[in-house]
Known about the structure:
Structural class: mainly alpha
Mean pLDDT: 79
Largest sheet: none
Radius of gyration: 24 Å
Shape: elongated
Number of domains: 3
Distance between the termini: 44 Å
Amino acid sequence: xxxxxxxxxxxxxxxxxxxxxxxxxxxxxxxxxxxxxxxxxxxxxxxxxxxxxxxxxxxxxxxxxxxxxxxxxxxxxxxxxxxxxxxxxxxxxxxxxxxxxxxxxxxxxxxxxxxxxxxxxxxxxxxxxxxxxxxxxxxxxxxxxxxxxxxxxxxxxxxxxxxxxxxxxxxxxxxxxxxxxxxxxxxxxxxxxxxxxxxxxxxxxxxxxxxxxxxxxxxxxxxxxxxxxxxxxxxxxxxxxxxxxxxxxxxxxxxxxxxxxxxxxxxxxxxxxxxxxxxxxxxxxxxxxxxxxxxxxxxxxxxxxxxxxxxxxxxxxxxxxxxxxxxxxxx
Length: 331
């Protein structure tokens, strides 16, 4: 075996063993024929474009569509549901701010002084943050390219641009924020490839979650205004622990389990529940020694998230389409 052939076979190890068993020899022969005679003394290696093409092929095989092997189809569907729910979560967090933008723009304490860089970034963050909404609606309606473009721009503005520009320090980003922002974008880019025909969901699926979030935020703000008037800050802090990602994730997980959704959806929600749990656990230390009611609510939330993670993972694996498809093939 030549050194170049050895390197090619190492690169092809990124592909599943079943795929290599069928096509490895053919692929190696094609690569070697194209490369020509190269002596081992030249220390030949595969070109970067060849390596990247194998990486792309490995992702398409391992995150297969409905025509792929059952186990890889199950993985692919789970990653695609991670993308859909993650974009939906970001859309629900960002969309409610859009109707409030005119009122917020008049508040210099919120946006910053007129003409300042802080004001420009804050307004841009609200406006471009709603690209999450565009990405979610586009993905739900089957416009994958639009969804990918909007998601990358939203992530770039909300995270990369502030850090690179120095406008916002890295320490201001929690691990939960980074994971909940980056993972849906990566899942969208890798999970929806050319071998996966994008599903076209109804407008109800595309518009109901952000609309419900906007309505809920309006109700919460109305209630909070009354609590501020009477100086009830404890109730406001308790309410704040449930109005962010943990509250949305718990509600979505409970609805998914009740409606009997498929395994990939449940496994995607299990991922988000454990991320939310890991992000919430440090708050137990933060709240310890403070108001007892707030600490109790945070502890209850951790228990709920932990229990849901276990339930979603077990039920999700049981409901994976791999079981159904294996049964169909055995008939």
